[in-house]
Write a structure and sequence with these properties.
This protein is mainly alpha-helical. The chain has one domain: Arp2/3 complex 21 kDa subunit ARPC3, CATH 1.10.1760. Helices cover 70% and strands 4% of the residues. The chain is elongated, with a radius of gyration of 17 Å.
């Protein structure tokens, strides 16, 4: 969905990436972000825009750092877990899109600073919303498919 800023759209991919990053950790997240964004750019535009590919990988890597702190695999994802996941993904989006992507755009592609920082701020907000809504919903739904620790007992 367009945001009104050139080359900056709201995409569900960031919510899905955040979900898998939180579920499988930072290395998986890094690969998901790099490969997913790289392939998406190559298919849509003919070649990857590497500064944003790196930012996507970094976003998923940082979001994946929440992995050991969540108990989604144990059937738990409520209150503090939801807050923790969203704090991580918001920090990841701000670092990646407000700092890393614009600086790489300037250094690698000689893009104008005012444009890339505007794009970065809009991308950080839209990606954080996507990750916050879609990622949270997917993690909550997934946690309901897992058995809670100690919920199963052996029949006598």
């Amino acid at each position: 969905m367009p945001t009104g800023i050139p080359e900056t759209d709201i995409k569900t991919a960031y919510g899905v990436g955040a979900f898998f990053s939180a579920l499988f950790g930072p290395i998986a997240g890094l690969l998901i972000g790099l490969i997913g964004h790289g392939l998406s750019d190559a298919i849509q535009y003919g070649s990857p825009w590497w500064s944003w590919v790196v930012a996507s990988g970094l976003t998923c890597f940082i979001t994946g750092l929440v992995y050991p702190k969540l108990k989604v695999d144990e059937g738990e994802f409520k209150g503090k877990d939801i807050l923790r996941f969203n704090i991580y993904q918001i920090i990841a989006n701000v670092i990646s899109w407000v700092i890393v992507a614009p600086i790489l755009d300037i250094v690698v592609y000689a893009e104008p600073a005012n444009l890339v920082f505007t794009q970065g701020i809009v991308a950080a907000i839209s990606n954080a919303i996507s990750a916050g809504v879609i990622g949270t919903i997917l993690l909550a739904l997934y946690s309901k498919t897992r058995s809670k620790k100690g919920s199963l007992s052996k029949d006598q």
